[in-house]
Amino acid sequence: MSRTAAAAAKAATLVEALPFIRSYRGRVVVVKLGGEPLDDPRLATVVAQDVALLSLVGIRVAVVHGGGPQISRAMEDRGVVPEFRDGLRVTGDAAMEIVQRTLVGDVNAHLVRRLNEAGAAAVGISGIDATTLEAEPVPGIGRVGTVAAVRTGLLTTLLEDGFTPVVAPVGMTRDATTLNVNADVAAAAVAGALRADKLVYLTNVPGLYRDLGDSASLVSEMKRDDLVALLPDLSDGMRPKMESALGALDAGVAKVHVLDGRVEHALLLEVFTPDGIGTQVLP
């Protein structure tokens, strides 16, 4: 391919993206990043570039991140054995100290640095800041919480001023107790409170399968009620994520996407191409 032809192909790609840029400019997109992509420097850089590009073309992006692998390593380094129940990390007082330090001081800070390096105006916050994530305890597993309310003031101010908020999922109760909040739950709550046009989960699977063992059963698009029917057949890891997705749809989020974060530029392929990738869930 000649240099001119190669340049023309790139230009055609940009033109193809133009209707989608026009459609989503000024709209809110919430992106949930798992700890696994952030653990891979190459993938973390690509994701940061994707988020920066969305922001630079005028899409208001809020990022909520996890940090499961990083927290588990930090716990093991401190002699604390990670324990999970129903997909949630059992979090005692010692574990909570590690969770908060790792999510806020390590994962969040590194992600913000990558995003700013890529050109986004990223600002790192946690759910504690301005009590953005008001949490209430989940009984029986220590200092683990679910989101009781999202106070959107700080998020909205940042988004309206052109910043990309990057939220570490640590919440706070009304009596100022900090709680570990599942990042999927936090992302869905933030998306619902902001009435986002899209909630995007970047995961380590290609999407949702009707039959987990059959790669041909990958679902490209489904409606909310179809997802409800599929819930009992989902894996222990995917079910809580999709229960959160249902809550986001019920709160007014227009679309939920489950994408394979291991695919380079998965976020751009979903937002800026007509076919997209992964699974799209509609109300």
Write a brief caption for the model.
The protein has 283 residues and is of the alpha/beta class. The protein is 45% helix and 24% strand. The chain has helices spanning 3-24, 35-39, 41-56, 68-77, 93-118, 153-160, 183-194, 224-230, 238-250, 266-272, and strands spanning 28-33, 60-65, 84-85, 88-89, 122-126, 133-137, 144-150, 164-168, 170-172, 178-181, 198-203, 208-209, 218-219, 221-223, 255-260, 279-282.
Structure overview:
This protein has helices at residues 3-24, 35-39, 41-56, 68-77, 93-118, 153-160, 183-194, 224-230, 238-250, 266-272, and strands at residues 28-33, 60-65, 84-85, 88-89, 122-126, 133-137, 144-150, 164-168, 170-172, 178-181, 198-203, 208-209, 218-219, 221-223, 255-260, 279-282. It is globular. β6 and β7 (144-150) form a beta hairpin. α3 (41-56) packs across α5 and α7 (183-194) runs parallel beside α9. Helices cover 45% and strands 24% of the residues. The protein is an alpha/beta fold.
